[in-house]
Design a protein that fits this description.
alpha/beta, about 20% helix, globular, Rossmann fold, 7-stranded mixed beta sheet, about 25% strand, 2 domains
């Protein structure tokens, strides 16, 4: 009997979270709906995956709007999408047998029928499966590319990273140190997160942006300036960084969560002109443009995880029904490290 034949109990029913309506400003629970669905059997060349973990990420807020961007908006009445990990429970694809653990982009649902080419087997012998959504997944790769390509760190640099206790920021702080930074400064919301940034995520110091005066706090921690800024927040943080950057400083524009729920135009930094005399480089990045760096990064990151120089931090919410609430909590800073939804298994 072929090893790729369907085995185990046939799955008939599942659930998915759909976009019920588009938000105006900050999303609410009413923008989502949890729906029972029938799960089809996989056609030739397809697999049926039972999802065990899914990711919620700030960029998904932009996909809730029907506006032109680098990625298509979510469709009304259809399930949302995002990174997920699951187990293959039925297969009609030779290369992806039943029992495989795979990553894919069909999150926000209990099960997904996918073409075999749309899933990537992951090695759970070197790391827990959920790490492939966080420190070994898009989150870690974003931090790595930002620090090695978009705004490359050079030996001895002073690096500033916003959202230092968040998913990308908590990894970026550690990687900046591993890549040769002499001093790593973060920004986080509240005393507890500032303490975690310093104790666990590689930062020498961090400002508490909830205390106000981000520019003054950064100047106090980096009186001689900074060389690299990883921007995950935008707004006041970008303005503060532009004021602190030394000549030939580099900025990676990774995100701007401070403005994702804005209902009017976001204001640019008042000191943007400083980019000219200081010869600053500001460069946006989309991690999907750098998929070819995944193997390189995972190889290095698994070594760092093994020797303890890189730490994975996750905040876990249980159950698909709680995925919308988990997503909404991102905009209140509820998570430390990567925010994941555990679907069971």
């Amino acid at each position: 009997m072929p090893t790729h034949a369907t085995s185990g109990p046939e799955v008939r029913l599942g659930q998915e979270v759909r976009l019920r309506s588009r938000p105006a400003g900050e999303p609410t629970a009413d923008n989502f709906e949890l729906v029972d669905v029938e799960i089809p059997s996989p056609a030739p060349g397809q697999v049926l995956v039972r999802n065990t973990w899914m990711s919620v990420d700030p960029y998904m807020r932009g996909r809730m709007d029907d506006t032109e961007s680098y990625i298509a908006p979510f469709a009304l009445g259809a399930p949302l999408e995002g990174g997920a990990i699951g187990q293959v429970v039925a297969s009609n694809a030779v290369d992806v047998p039943v029992g495989s653990t795979v990553s894919h982009r069909a999150g926000w649902r209990s099960h997904a029928v996918l073409d075999a080419v749309a899933v990537t087997p992951v090695d759970t012998s070197i790391a827990p499966p959920e790490h492939y959504l966080g420190v070994l997944g898009m989150t870690g790769l974003t931090a790595y590319v930002a620090l090695t390509d978009t705004a490359p760190v050079e030996e001895g640099d002073v690096v500033f990273i916003s959202a230092a206790a968040g998913a990308v920021g908590s990894v970026a702080g550690q990687l900046a140190r591993l890549l040769g930074a002499s001093r790593v400064i973060g920004s986080a919301g509240g005393a507890a997160k500032v303490a975690r940034a310093v104790a666990d995520f590689g930062f020498d110091a961090a400002i508490d942006y909830t205390a106000g005066d981000v520019t003054g706090q950064l100047a106090a921690l980096a009186p001689e300036g900074i060389d690299v800024y990883i921007d995950l927040v935008g707004g006041e943080h970008l303005e503060a960084a532009l004021g602190a950057l030394r000549r030939n400083g580099r900025v990676a524009i990774v995100g701007a969560i401070s403005g994702y729920n804005a209902t009017g135009p976001a204001h640019g930094p008042a000191n943007f002109y400083r980019t000219l005399p200081r010869r600053l480089s500001l460069r946006g990045m989309i991690v999907s443009d750098h998929a070819d760096r995944t193997s390189e990064y995972v190889e290095r990151a698994t070594g760092w995880l093994a020797d303890g120089s890189l730490r994975a931090e996750n905040t876990v919410v249980e159950g698909l029904a709680n995925a919308p609430a988990a997503f909404l909590s991102l905009f209140r800073g509820a998570n430390t490290g990567k925010l994941l939804v555990h679907l069971g298994g």
